[in-house]
Automatic annotation (TrEMBL):
Major subcellular site: membrane
Annotated ranges, domain O-antigen ligase-related: 298-435
Cited InterPro entries: O-antigen_ligase-rel_domated, WaaL-like
Keyword Disulfide bond part of the UniProt annotation: no
Localisation per UniProt entry: Membrane
Source species of the chain: Candidatus Flavonifractor merdipullorum
Lineage top rank: taxon: Bacteria
Taxonomy of the source species: Bacteria, Bacillati, Bacillota, Clostridia, Eubacteriales
Name by which UniProt lists this protein: O-antigen ligase family protein
Keywords: Ligase, Membrane, Transmembrane, Transmembrane helix
Amino acid sequence: MSITENSILLRWLAGVWAVLTGAWRESGLGRFFRGCESAVRRWAEGSGIWQFVWRDGTLPRVWPESISCRLFTGILNIPCAIAKWIYRVGKGLWDGSLAFRFVSALGGASFVFLGLLMLVMLIVPHSYWNNAYGLLGAVGVTALFVLGSAARPRHRLEADRLGPYMLFYLILLFYALVGSLSTSLSMRYFLFHVTSFLLVLLVVSSVQKYEQLRLVVALAVAGLVIASLYGCYQSYVGVEIVASQQDMSVNEGMPGRIYSFFDNPNNFAEILAMLIPLDIALFLGAKTWRGRFWSLAALVPCLISIGATYGRASWIGLAFAVLVMVALENWRLIPVALVLGVCAIPFLPETIYNRILTIGNMQDSSTRYRFSIYEATSNLMKDYWYRGVGLDPQVMQRVFQTYPTMFDGSYPIHTHNNYLQMWGETGILGLIAYVGVLLYGLKTGVKQFYKTMDKRVRHMLAASIGALCGIMVISVAEYTWFYPRNMFIYWFLFGVIFTCIKLGRSEQQSK
């Protein structure tokens, strides 16, 4: 028997919980809420708005059989096709080669190297990190996957699973490169977008079953834990207070904000907000007490670290991510989660509690600065809303300098908002494509969540959807891609959603 089964305390708590839930089910209030649920469900299912939102759109429906899909997928799989052809031509030779079999085995386990890439990405200190490492790593793992696909007829780059909006998004990114006011500057961020797309493609293509996805996510979480442990160490010894990162006039007594291996506390907080839900999914999906223990233990330094970053937007984003996850898993627990969250606030450390109170405070210089940035951005948008200035914040910085300065005489570095930044860089069509990709991923993920029977996949899907919703909320107040490592993890998270969708659909087809 497991430790949990032998624990008198846990058995007593489980018994109390069973009594309380039974009493709730039989209570008049419980019956009332169940009646409300049924009424709302019947209304929603018969609603024209619901049918419009929930239906399969024309584009996604025709996408798999379309010429565009076949052409897009075919072009991407040219390297795989060449590898398969070379293998077929010399099959006898290759099968007898120990070196080939070794490389082929590595290629078949490319998901492991993807997980290791994410781990390394999370633990390399900022002073040693070069964003080119992300591109080289993604290209390297892709090459390994291609080599591994030679002897595996069914292995291919499954770009078709990402839907039609991803193709439009990529086309508009390329347009933003060639139509940029400075193509040479834009090339840098275009390569970051290429890296991000490869990460999405690799997660979806290399993972064939849940155990593989769990390993990839576990390696990423391991990297997060290492970064968080260092963050806890920084919190213990203290870090220098940076005036530009915290307004001490409204945050009196607040210590320096930790940043771990990253350049900025907000960068670290955003990464934590994206990956903490995945660790929760590992906990919920664990079948042994050891798995639950280690995933729960991993959560502790991560939560301490996100608190010590004092990243308000990320706190809100993580809270929203958990709320979305709870809503998918069991929406009846939302009131409980909200009550527990509110009740926990007074028990928070005083500095964190005071920091929460500054949310929305216009006396905080960072809040005032953001609104000044938005005003400067609106001036730029009047001239470039339809076409954009081109990829890379550096291009936008140059354009900002042709407009009036902000209240302090400076120019914005970026728009402090993902959506405004994408609009300013790629134009209105680029913004629509970007939002379309995200909404398509969320909608498809939610629909598949209710069709998937494997609870482990459901937990991971709920967590990744929640995490994406959380970072989308954070993106309203922060430009989360200014630090490219965050951009890579953002799209890795997006890839996890579509991998869960793939696993859920495979389960349906097998039955």
